[in-house]
């Protein structure tokens, strides 16, 4: 399953990498990519959306599903 979440606060490729790594650490995520230009991240897998939002928040960014 593919899911896209909104991520605010990313401004560069380093930010994208931080968000991607945070999302990939969530149980059930098989892959993740973040894009600061579209202020979003796409996640593959069956992870709980609340866990995704929490992981991005813990990385220092604002997320919503």
TrEMBL record:
SUPFAM superfamilies, alphabetized: HMA, heavy metal-associated domain
Transmembrane segments: none
Top-rank taxon, per record: Archaea
Pfam families referenced in this protein's UniProt entry, alphabetically: HMA
Full protein name: Heavy metal transport/detoxification protein
Domain HMA residues, every copy: 1-64
GO molecular function, one term: metal ion binding
Lineage, highest ranks first: Archaea, Methanobacteriati, Methanobacteriota, Stenosarchaea group, Halobacteria
